[in-house]
# Entry
Amino acid sequence: MTAGKETMGEQPIFTCKAHVFHIDPKTKRSWMSASSAAVSVSFFYDSSRNLYRIISVEGTKAVINSTITANMTFTKTSQKFGQWSDVRANTVYGLGFASEAELGKFIEKFQEVKEAIQAQQCGATAKTTNGSGAATPVASATASPLLAARATTGEEPPALSPAQPKVENDEMMVHQRAHSVSSTLQTVSQGGYATVGRAPRAAPAAAPADAADSGEQLMRYENDRLKLALAQSSANAKKWEVELATLKSNNLRLTAALQESTANVDEWKRQLHQYREEVARARHYATGKGGEANEVDQLRQRVAQLEAELAQKNEELLQITKSKKSEQDEEAKLAQSQLELALAAQDGQRQVMHAINEQLARQITELTTIHREISTALQT
# Structure
């Protein structure tokens, strides 16, 4: 029982790793990163609703939730990058792959899913045609994937997006539809009965009124298809005009940058030529001044010789200074010894004078004593 529920639910059929980008909703020309790193991008098939979806989740945020329709186109814009437009989500998704091979696998799976959807719509159209026994607008929708989605879902066709087919394809569709309208008108004018998307066949003779009504309905339906294709072509033409203006502006900027680079290269070449001329002149000057170079060498040798003589003179002066200093030291020592001798002699003279003074003091003392004795004797 559980297996049956899983089979009837939404199941992944293909998974790959890629960086997810969303188109900038303001400018519609630059990309905004929707994932911080490469995330898992998976194709899912819901068997209960018969739908295919591309889903990618980073953490708790769904960065891609796109239901695939038959009119979607995946465009490879570089070796590792591709994009497709989802009108229902009102955005353009971009995927950056690690290698061109992974991008190729994704493109193959996208095309395979798209063909499966177209096959389902063709099968539903065939069943409707066989069951009714008459041509209906659903049968005509088989020739156009855009109107097939409208016929099967009952919704209005989505607005044109940047990832739609090129203008050339739309013009081809316009020519085909115009041819279909003309063939239908011719068949109806001849009293015939035609079904859209098939070769005209003769109408039953018993029902001319029904054939006329069917022819009128078919003309109205083909007229609506033609108007829609023309509107799409006009929208694509405006889009390509805008892109052409952008390319012209980019071309002008690139031309200006190229001219500036060329001017810079010319300036560098001119400077290099000047440097080469200066080097040549310097070499010529050095070659022509060979005699002066010899004189310079002689002067250098003379300077070296004078420096050597100066060093020798300095050494001699140092030796003379040392000898003079030694002589002065000897003279100082001699003077010091003579001074010491003089001082010693002065000390000896001091001692003699001291002895003489002492002797004189004793003699004075004796004379004083004799004077006193004589005075005493005279008094008595």
Notes: Residues 1-7, 133-209 have pLDDT under 50 and may be disordered.
